Each structure stands twice: as structure tokens, then as C-alpha cells.
Amino acid sequence: MSSLTLAVRDSSTMLRRNLLHARRYPSLTLNLLLTPIMLLLLFVYVFGDVMSAGIGGGGRSEYIAYLVPGLLLMTIGSTTIGTAVSVSNDMTEGIIARFRTMAIHRGSVLIGHVIGSVLQSIASVLLVGAVAVAIGFRSTNATALEWLAAFGLLVLFAVALTWIAVGMGLISPNAEAASNNALPLILLPLLSSAFVPVDGMPGWFQPIAEYQPFTPAIETLRGLLLGTEIGHNGWLALAWCVGLVVLGYFWSKSVFNRDPK
């Protein structure tokens, strides 16, 4: 059996294992998924009228359109926290030590986690998107190509954050530490243009919001779905995604391949 065939076979097995875990123990995924849904309902029905005035008026419906792209990306960040916890559990509960003694492809464990997490992230995005549509979100004049580009951005962003979450899980001594280490994946969207425009923030805070991965990704997704200006954000979002994938992959691979102490 060739090395590629072995890698594909073992990665598929690990993917099924992770999906079975997610199906049997859905509480973590559901708890993380509730965060963006609650924020969506809170900002639309409690703060919607006030927030819409801050972005130029237009009422609650306009603010829904502004809010949803950011929450879709925040959903991905929330879901990947579960990945960090799952990886940490594997590392601390002994199953990885057992896998090391078996004739399986060494990277298949991590690949299974990554693919499983990306699938869960996209499913979560679809669910949050369905809730958004139910309360009034509508895409404005987006073409089929723009919808395809938006979906591709969501998948690429999910892959990027998942590899970072895998690395965080690998270095964590327990599940609680993994959850804490991955907390920035939820906090960064709160410090981005997800809820208010960067121009409306205090001057000293604007660089924090602007020079981070979520803001260019949000502005790109917003432009694809709503027809707003994308500018250089598309290239910045792509660069952030590729950079995080490369960083997360080599970081995770390096930590995973260390001999256990």
C-alpha cells in the first residue's frame, strides 16, 4: 500500500472517529454554537435600533445585514474551541500513546481532527445563517460567483482557525487549559468590525481592530454578500488565512511529533 493511500485511509478512519465523538457528545458543540446565536438575537432585538443609528441609520434590517457576516466568522471561531478541547483530551487520556504503537499514518490523527472540525464549523455556519435569514437577513444582489467566493472564504477561514486550535490543544495540559488557550478565537471578533465599523471606534483602538485576521475577513464576506466595498481586504483576508494555515500546520506537526516525556 502506497504512503498516500495509507494516509487517506487512516485519515478517513480518524475523521469517522471524530464525527462519532461529536454525535455522541454534542453538548460542547451546542454550547459553543449558542454564543453567536444569542449575540445575534441580542444585538438585533435589544440593540438593533440604537446600533443602526451608529452606522448611518436604516433601521434594524440594515443592522442585521451589517451584523451577520461577522457573526458567521465568529461562529467558526467558537466551533474550533471544541477542537482544541478534543485534541487536548486525546493527548492527555492516553489514546495518542496507543496510536503511536499502531501501524497507522502518523499525521492522520491531526488530519481527522481538522477535517471533522471544518465540517462542524460549516454546519454551524449554515445553522446560524438559517437563524439570520429567519429574522430578516437578506443578501443584496450577490451573484452565484460571489456566493461561491463567500463559501470558499468561510471554508478557508475554518481550516486556518482549526489548525491554530489544534496547536493550542496539543500544548494544553488538560481540557480546561485548552479552552482558555483558544479563548482569543471568540474574543478577537468582539474586537473587530463585526459589530461596529472601525472608523467609529476610538482612535487608539482602531489599529487593534484593523490589524487582526477577523476584520479583513469580515469586510470581504460583507462585500461579497452585500455588495459593499472590499478594497484590499480580500487580499489581506487571503494572506491571513494562508499564513495561519502554514503556521498552525507546522506548529501542530512539530508539537505532535515530539517524543512523549
Helix-strand blueprint:
Elements: H1 3-24, H2 27-45, H3 48-54, H4 60-92, H5 95-100, H6 108-134, H7 144-170, H8 175-181, H9 184-190, H10 206-210, H11 214-226, H12 233-256
Question: Would you write up a description of this structure?
Answer:
The protein is mainly alpha-helical and 261 residues long. The chain is 75% helix and 0% strand. The chain has helices at residues 3-24, 27-45, 48-54, 60-92, 95-100, 108-134, 144-170, 175-181, 184-190, 206-210, 214-226, 233-256. Helix 1 packs across helix 6 (108-134), helix 4 packs antiparallel against helix 6 (108-134) and helix 6 packs across helix 7 (144-170). The longest helix is centred in the first third of the chain and has 33 residues, at 60-92. The chain is elongated, with a radius of gyration of 19 Å.
List descriptors:
261 residues; mainly alpha; 0% strand
In short:
The protein is mainly α. The chain contains 12 helices and no strands. The relative contact order is 0.14.
Low-confidence stretches: none
Number of helical elements = 12
Helix share, percent: over 70%
Question: How can the largest sheet be summarized?
Answer: none
Shape: elongated
The residue-averaged pLDDT reads 85
Alpha carbon gap, first and last residue: 32 Å
